[in-house]
């Protein structure tokens, strides 16, 4: 069986111990399987991506002993591909244009149905305000997936990670009630993370997605998009997250745990491996 995986950091800040764990785990699994390890630079958000952070990613990973088997793929080189897929989904009537601000969504959500979840993987569930307005793309601020139509598929995925291991089947009730009309693109961003990640993974032949548990819920969106687009669903492995002493997961602003800081203090790659439990 082929095994192709990837590590996909955003160049918006320093890599920290959580990234080190994710990258080392994916790299170890690829090497153990005699497979391929790829590096992707998730610079979708051009307002936050910086060349110096991208360089730091290369330096930190190389220092950790990680090698990638093809030149890194940059999302910013593929905006036209994302737009083409969006055009296809629009033509199939699976999207709608939306002009709601965050405040509009909050206000509309103030009278939720009893028992309905208020938040999904992307934050507050969209209340459907613009779904039937037939807005033109010019008038809108984002394009959303119309979940009332998109959820009519049969799809499942296999998870091998420690927390949710097993076969997960998507149901339309669950997709509508807990995910809703997710954003596929914004006026100032070629694609949402969900759309881009699905297209990047298939373009690179990724067979195994290895990433943090924080993305487990979002995986249903990715599997739904793969199914709608007729592209293969990889196997998923969501690993546990590295947390600080207070139990909070590390974030980009956690400079105190930046790999660069440990390097500067004289730690070895083996020290970092043992700090993250590998
Ligand atoms: N750029 C995303 C992140 O940093 C990648 C997530 C993924 O592996 O799908 O979280």
UniProtKB/TrEMBL annotation:
Coiled coil: none annotated. One of its GO terms (biological process) is glutamyl-tRNA aminoacylation. Residues 4-274 form the Glutamyl/glutaminyl-tRNA synthetase class Ib catalytic domain. Transmembrane segments: none annotated. It comes from the Bacteria. It holds the Pfam family tRNA-synt_1c. Keywords: Aminoacyl-tRNA synthetase, ATP-binding, Ligase, Metal-binding, Nucleotide-binding, Protein biosynthesis, Zinc. GO terms for molecular function: ATP binding; glutamate-tRNA ligase activity. InterPro entries: aa-tRNA-synth_I_CS (IPR001412), Glu/Gln-tRNA-synth (IPR000924), Glu/Gln-tRNA-synth_Ib_cat-dom (IPR020058), GluQ/Sye (IPR049940), Rossmann-like_a/b/a_fold (IPR014729). One of its GO terms (cellular component) is cytosol. The keyword ATP-binding applies. Belongs to the class-I aminoacyl-tRNA synthetase family. NCBIfam families: PRK05710.1-4. This is Glutamyl-Q tRNA(Asp) synthetase. It comes from Shimia haliotis.
């Amino acid at each position: 069986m082929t095994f192709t995986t990837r590590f996909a950091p955003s160049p918006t800040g320093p890599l920290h111990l959580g990234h080190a764990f994710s990258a080392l785990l994916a790299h170890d699994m690829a090497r153990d399987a005699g497979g391929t390890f790829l590096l992707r630079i998730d610079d979708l958000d051009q307002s936050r991506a910086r060349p110096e952070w991208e360089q730091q990613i290369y330096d930190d990973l190389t220092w950790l002993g990680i090698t990638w088997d093809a030149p890194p793929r940059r999302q910013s080189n593929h905006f036209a591909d994302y737009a083409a897929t969006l055009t296809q989904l629009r033509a199939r009537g699976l999207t709608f244009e939306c002009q709601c601000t965050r405040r509009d969504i909050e206000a509309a959500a103030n009278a939720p149905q009893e028992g309905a979840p208020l938040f999904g993987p992307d934050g507050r569930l969209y209340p459907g305000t613009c779904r039937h307005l037939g807005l033109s793309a010019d008038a809108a601020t984002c394009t959303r997936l119309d979940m009332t139509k998109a959820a009519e598929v049969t799809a499942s995925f296999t998870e091998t990670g420690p927390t949710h291991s097993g076969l997960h089947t998507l149901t339309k009730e669950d997709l509508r009630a807990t995910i809703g009309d997710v954003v596929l693109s914004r006026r100032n961003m070629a694609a949402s993370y969900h759309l881009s990640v699905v297209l990047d993974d298939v373009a690179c032949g990724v067979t195994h997605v290895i990433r943090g548990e924080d993305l487990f819920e979002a995986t249903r969106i990715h599997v739904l998009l793969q199914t709608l687009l007729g592209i293969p669903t990889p196997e998923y492995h969501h690993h546990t997250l590295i947390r600080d002493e207070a139990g909070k997961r590390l974030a980009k602003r956690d400079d105190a745990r930046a790999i660069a800081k440990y390097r500067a203090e004289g730690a070895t790659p083996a020290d970092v491996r043992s700090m993250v439990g590998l």
